[in-house]
Structure formats: structure tokens, C-alpha cells
Amino acid sequence: MDLTAAETRVLGCLLEKQRTTPDMYPLTLNALRLACNQSTNRDPVVGYDDGVIREALHRLERRGFTRLASGRGSRAPKYRHLLADALPMGDDEQALMSVLMLRGPQTPGELKQRGERMHPFGSLEDVHDTLRRLIARGLVVRLDRRPGQKEERYIHLLEERPGAEAPAAGDHGPAAAHTDGEHGSASSAPSDPGPGAAEGSLAALLERVSRLEREMAELRAGQDGSGQPVSRREALPAVHE
Fold first, then answer.
1. Out of 3.50.50.60, 3.40.50.620, 1.20.1740.10, 1.10.10.10, which CATH number does the structure's domain 5-177 have?
2. What are phi and psi of 179, to 5 degrees?
3. What is the pTM of this model?
4. So what's the pLDDT on residue 145?
5. Rounded to whole angstroms, how far apart are CA atoms 178 and 195?
């Protein structure tokens, strides 16, 4: 998956509000904007306007993740997610995915605490069991433990994250394919040529432009570099690809 941050936030909010406020679901554009821009239970906190959310909804609809759900008599368009059709999940899986989409990488303990609003996990082992199923489906990956941290953190794989943290050793799935497999290792990726190469290319370009200007001036004067008259065809500078 390669959802944008806005698409992830919109989809996560639709999933969350369906579970926590079913009487308000499907959501209007205004309700969805307020849900996306909440200052609580969100990381990072954002300030999306209606245009950003409409564009995210449009792209999600093309992927088969959302659709317009306004009924007859509705005064405003409403939207619902189609995650149950596109990526069928149990209630426990949906709860963890929603929290991961809205709060970023988290430990199993944090996921249990924050996911209780959507699904009651009996124990921490129930959370681990759900995470194992999501990892097996390629939807979640375990990250390396941070220094001084007792628990590993987990992250969902629906969103493209350039420069994201590497998954923990032994975890497999779509995340590992970015560094190993048919696309080669991360070390084989082309490196940034750096500012020196750009400056060298610019200098070469400026030198070529200056040379062409001199040749065109000589052409207009009807002379070559030695001051002898030349024909128009002979004076034309050679152009190379």
C-alpha cells in the first residue's frame, strides 16, 4: 500500500467513528474534517481543510476504500469506508488498525489501552495474537525496540513512509520488500550525487552557452574565429544531443 498521510487519516477516522459514534456514521465532510483535525487521540495533529479531505476521499474512492453514502433526504453528502470489503478484518483487527492509522507506531500496551473504545481486549496476549494475524497478512510490522524501551512498537503498512524506521529482524512482508528481494537491497539504491555534482553540471552548461553565444555572434558578423569570411552553412555551430 502507498496511501498518503491525508488518505490514512481520513480512512482511520471513518473506521474509528463507525465504532465509537455509530449514530453519527456515515460522516459528513464537516464531521470528517473535525475528526481529522482533533487535538486528542491523534499523532500528528493536523489542520486539513475541506479541499485536502475531498481529494483524499476521491483517491480512496478510486482505490475502493470509501464511497459516498448519502441517503434520500440528506442535507449534506456523507461518506463511509469500505474496508470490510477491500480488506476484510475482524473487530479486533479493525480496532488496532484504526489506532495505528491515527496514532502512529505504538507498543502492545498502548494499543490495548487505546483500542478498548472500539474492541474490548481481554488481555495483552489477545493484542499480541491480533498483531500476529495482521503481520501475517502484511498489514502491520514490528519495529526494533528503542533504547531504554521495554516493549517493541508496531506500525501499519498502508502508508508510504520514505525514510521510515526499519522493521525488526525476522519480520517479513511488504515492508521487507523495500530493502530485500527483487528490488535489491537498500545499499544498492542510487546515492545522492550531492551539491558538488550539481555545481559542476551548471558550470559546464554555462560554458557551453557562452561558447554558442560567441559562435552566433561570429555567424552574424559573417566571419569565423580567424576573421575570414565564411558561408552561412559553414558557420553554423554543430549541435550534438
1. 1.10.10.10
2. -115, -20
3. 0.67
4. 85
5. 27
